[in-house]
């Protein structure tokens, strides 16, 4: 019996070679004794049984040949094939011409059928893809430039316009254009130099800037938007001391 040593070399445990390879000879003798032990034979039996169970499980989950759309043998030739084949449920892979890609792509005239499912997307008039792209329809960030801030501080907003400053009609439109151009060219610094009290109407109490809008619909400030029941949070009397 030969044993593989590595790098393509083998060792034949001949008695004359024991003098040259005493360590390998002892390993070969240990392997022979291990093969004769009943524990080793039982382990080999269990490994073989496990492999057989795996093969049977994979074979039971295979789809039957007669259910596949492939060319298969029939009659006595099918019996011979199943007897000699390693995997009888494995098909030939040759598709049936009578059922493969029929009707062929492009064989039907395009005007012979209607597809009502794609009516909104199929209309190319004023229907760009970015309007129908729901995957990328995430909230966009809104930015306010210095020109916008100058216009808001000068003439106010649509919700709170400054009627004493904003003119009516075409004069008001020209005024908005002029204010926007001034904000783009010179920014907020020029507005503060011209009118130091322009920002006073926007600031809150004690000169603090305006706070963002409150998305919490609960009117009472004492109530919280989130309510945690005792089952999923801490109860009012928590059984643990807190050291301050």
Automatic annotation (TrEMBL):
This is NADH-ubiquinone oxidoreductase 21.3 kDa subunit. It comes from Penicillium alfredii. PANTHER family: OXIDOREDUCTASE 21 KDA SUBUNIT, PUTATIVE (AFU_ORTHOLOGUE AFUA_4G05910)-RELATED (PTHR37325:SF1). CDD domains: NuzM (cd22849).
């Amino acid at each position: 019996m030969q044993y593989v040593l590595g790098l393509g070399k083998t060792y034949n445990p001949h008695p004359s070679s024991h003098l040259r390879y005493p360590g390998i000879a002892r390993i070969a003798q240990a392997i022979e004794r291990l093969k004769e032990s009943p524990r080793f034979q039982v382990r080999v039996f269990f490994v073989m049984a496990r492999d057989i169970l795996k093969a049977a499980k994979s074979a039971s989950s295979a789809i039957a040949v007669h259910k596949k759309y492939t060319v298969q043998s029939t009659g006595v030739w099918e019996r011979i094939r199943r007897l000699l084949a390693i995997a009888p449920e494995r098909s030939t892979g040759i598709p049936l011409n009578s059922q493969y890609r029929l009707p062929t792509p492009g064989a039907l005239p395009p005007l012979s059928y209607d597809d009502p499912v794609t009516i909104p997307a199929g209309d190319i008039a004023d229907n760009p893809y970015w309007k129908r792209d729901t995957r990328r329809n995430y909230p966009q960030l809104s930015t306010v430039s210095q020109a916008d801030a100058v216009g808001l501080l000068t003439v106010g907003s649509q919700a709170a316009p400054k009627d004493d400053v904003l003119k009516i009609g075409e004069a008001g439109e020209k005024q908005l254009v002029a204010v926007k151009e001034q904000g783009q060219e010179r920014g907020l610094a020029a507005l503060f130099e011209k009118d130091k009290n322009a920002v006073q109407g926007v600031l809150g109490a004690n000169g603090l800037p305006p706070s963002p809008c409150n998305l919490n619909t609960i009117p009472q400030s004492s109530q919280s938007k989130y309510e945690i029941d005792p089952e999923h949070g801490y109860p009012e009397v928590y059984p643990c001391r807190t050291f301050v």
